[in-house]
Structure formats: C-alpha cells, structure tokens
Amino acid sequence: MELRLDKRFSERYLFAASYTWSRQYGNYSGLASSDEITVDSSGNANGRVSPNVNRYYDLPWIYYTEKGKLAEGRLATDRPHTFKFFGGYSLPSKLGLTTLSPNFLIYSGTPLTSEIEAVSTTPVAPYGRGDLGRTPVCLNTDFNIMHDFKGFGANENMKVRFEFTVFNVFNGHAAMGVDSDMKNANDGQLQFDHDADIFKGFNARQLMLEQGVRMNPSYRYPNAFQNPRSARLQLSFIF
Fold it and tell me: Please, what sign has the CA dihedral across residues 195, 126, 175, 165?
C-alpha cells in the first residue's frame, strides 16, 4: 500500500513524498534471486542480477530447513516501511536561476537468514528465514544545488549549468548486510549419503562437527554498509 503527496511546481517550489507499507513473504524470491547474495569488493551486497539463472529448479533443496521443511517467511528484500521525500526550491536572480533539492529516504531493515552450503555449494537455511533478525533502519539524505546561468549569445537558449551534489550528507554508516554463512570459507560443504537425505531433516551444527567443517569466524558480523559521504561537481553546457 502506498500513500503519495505530490505538489507540482508553482510559487517556485515542488515536492513529492510517499510512504509504502509492504510485506514480501514466501519461499521464492523471484527471477533475480535475492537469496543468492554476494558481497563485492566495495562491500556492497548484491543478489543474482541475471533473471532466470537462479538455482531454485536445478537444486530443489535450496533453502530447506534442518527439519526438512521449506524455509517460508519474509523474503530477503522485505522492507515493511519506506518513506521517501524529494523537494525543489528555485531562487531567481540577476545571474540566473538557483535550485535547491533535498532528497530524504528512511526504510526498514531487511531480514537476515543463516545459511550453510550443502552438497554442491548450494545454500540451505537450517533455522528458517529471518533467524538473525533484520538489518538496522536505514536513513539517507542527499542534497543538490544547481545554478543555471542566463542565456548568452545570439541564442538565449544557450546556457551554462553548475551543479554540486552531496550524497549521504550526514555520513550514515548503517549495516546493509551481515555475513550469514555459517561455515568457514576454506572448508567444504556439508555432505549427505544421498541428496534426498536433506529433505529428511538434519542437525547442521552436529554435521559440521562430524565432518570437520569449522564455524565461520565472521558469521553474524556486518559485511556491507551504506556508501560513505561523497560529492560530485558538474559543469554542463546546454544548447
């Protein structure tokens, strides 16, 4: 459900505000699977970005619990509450037009689920979805200042634009993800006599001990964060 409040540009200002209340529940996260999260070299957590290339149908035990049940629950992209605000205010002067534009976002954290690889690097969720809670609430503010100098030359439509944007003004550093892999990255996967044994149920920690699979030392620690504060300068010639 989304509630919106928009004001068209008049009296030198405009704004758009929205609040979204949502619920994403189930056992299948879609064509671009958010259940197959990887963390890039910059610390950003990304789901599978190639539609129809996920592993749900190739490996049917993906995301089964240690009780042999489908891991149903809030999906990895579930954000129950999201608020967005964008505004713009213009200040005309002899030198041209200056526009100030704030952009504010606040949204709920996403569910965190313990995973352990079984058989062929396939994740299963031994304790069900969301057993690790959620990432913190995330707040982000961007701010843009843009100035259009008055037209010049024979064609008054020609103008120069100067733009300065600050991203993440208050330098928020909320955790956007945690390392949810239970096993040490240097150890193998949990093995079963037959793949179908996964559906019969198992004890993840007991199997780790029996098979010499060590615990991941960074398990449950944050591994992805908001991008730090940054700025961009831009000079444009418009004709």
Answer: positive
For residues 231 and 103, give the distance between their C-alpha atoms in angstroms, rounded to a whole number.
14
* Pairing of the two strands 13-21 and 25-26: unpaired
Residue 159 to residue 6: CA distance in whole angstroms: 29
Does this model's pTM top 0.85? My answer is: no
Strand partners, 100: 89, 145
pLDDT in tens, 197-206: 888 889 999 9
Give the whole-angstrom CA distance, residue 130 versus residue 146: 43
